[in-house]
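Collaboration report, partner site 2.

Our partner group contributed sequences for two proteins of shared interest, and the home lab folded both. The records are reproduced in the order in which they were received, starting with the first partner submission.
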Amino acid sequence: MTTPWVPLLGGDPVPWLLACEEPAARWLTLTAALGRPPDDPDVRRAHDAVLVAPTTRSLLDRLPDWEAGAPISGHDSPAFAPHLLNLLADMGVRAGDAPSIENLLDRMLAHQEPTGRLPSFGTVPGSDTPVWGALLCDSHAITEVLVRFGRTRDPRVARALTRMGADLTDTPQGRAWPCVPHSTTGWRGPGRRDDFCPQVTVQALRTFGRVPEPLRPPGLLDSARVSLRAWRMRGEEKPHLFGHGRQYKTVKWPPTWYSAMAVLDALAGFPALWRDADPADPDRRALAELLACLATYNVGDSGRVVPGSSFRGFGGFSFGQKKAPSPFATARLLATLAPYDDLVSEAAGVDVSALGSSKGGSGTAVPPRRADAQVP
């Protein structure tokens, strides 16, 4: 049992992960990195351990009731319910595992708008009064977790997916998702009105990558290329508030927002981007560069992740500690790399220090890998 990514990671973390005391890290390694099926005995044992782990209970206890009186504080906040649900899903919690999750999903669906979009309760800039309404970064995030927790066949989820497909439009960057004004207040997010929004495009691609082909709108591969174009054009163009420098390459744990990891997770559902592409294809090259950056900026010489950045409130989780390697963060990074196994050699051949800077950046400096001395 090993990972083909050793040439890029500088070490094989799999034996360490399988022997660690974090059931979520073991489950994620077995399923995502090693491809074991749900009925594998080791997978079942890890899943059972996840459900009784204190960290799982801690996250379940944080889930909001989704009703008026609990407005969200920001779409990138780890307290936003879809982000908590995505983290629980990454840790191995599945549909039917927790009544509190099923109740939350029911409440999310109860507020669907006539358009098919799914709203949240919160404030927008310029107003202190929280209201129900939908931006695409609400509806896309909610739709994704409904899909992840087994609600794809619900007619309301089908309507949300149909709406998501209908919101796909031509932008100056290509066919992708723009920022659509808030359904109640009319407030619109940052950037030029007609430009693609990197965040909602990644969310939509990641969601459609999880559903059967008949539920996907046409032209998704072109939209995936728009996300890669944003990386390739980083020296000439910068989407407002969405850069491609150090913060984009360094994971902030738990991951919630637009980043190299988010783009790679989203595009994993579209293997034609690299498997059907010539080695000289610019999109295939962009993927190799992103894979190399993800490893270089986050992985130590041993192949383990010592988190460099994390949200407050996760001190009880290994990914919330900045002085020791995190089994879960390491397994989560391996899960991102795994769909791209056939790009290992190309990613390992990328000289990250030679990559051009982002627009507005000050250089191409690359942080050194974290020393093995930090690894117990």
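Second partner submission, folded after the first:
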Amino acid sequence: MDDYTDIIVEENDGVALVKLNRPQSLNAMGGTMMADIVSYLGSLNRGDYRIRAVVLTGEGRAFCAGGDVTGFPGVNPDRQRPAWRRSRSETSAILALRNCDVPIIGAINGYAVGGGFGLALGTDFRICADDAIFQVSQIKRGITPDVGLPYLLQAAVGTQRALEIIATARRVNAQEALALGLVLEVAPKDQLVARALEIARGVASGPPLAIAAAKRLVYTPHNDDLARVEEMTGMLVGKLFATADGIEGARSFMEKREPVFTGR
């Protein structure tokens, strides 16, 4: 197994526990974290089925806090990139979750906001801790939701509710997430990983080839649409970063104040 910088991988009896490992930033999407996820999940498609189920969770008190705002152009103009180009690891992570032959159980602890919300929804099924918080925080930064959120949230809760959650950028707690069907169940936070591993072991005891085939069949009607949404999202986010609202969203976050958007 390869060594990874920003994820921790523990493999045991056919089940892998994968922890996002940037706890100092609430597992924000920076460093090599997303690329590490893509690399590890890709390694599970080699056909040996040494791993038959994956649990994805976050180290520390958050699942994933989304994009690292310190790298947004509104905060760090030197890191601005062309509007049509995004980090390959960001755009590939959701598709890597979908294209992995192995079922992936999301164990959502603490905050799953912004891109972290999208990453959570990219798992095949989810349980969350009783203190979990979901939020489309990109709207508060003056950009559109990314990391699969526009597609995956609508698929999970329907168009009307998805647009309401996006437009208001309100927080969704664990019990509402359960009621909306975002998660299968809620567990006490100190029992979350144990419960997710229990589910994973049940999955891992099944026939791996048949389960891999079923996963591909379930997602086949949707993967092309998800890929197109991701491509369009990359272009839109790049353009929105450069607007006055995009700059205000990033700066207000760093200055710990509410943003004032002007539509420019």
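Feedback sent to the partner group on the second submission included the following. Residues 139 and 168 are 8 Å apart (CA to CA). The domain at 7-190 is CATH 3.90.226.10 (2-enoyl-CoA Hydratase; Chain A, domain 1).
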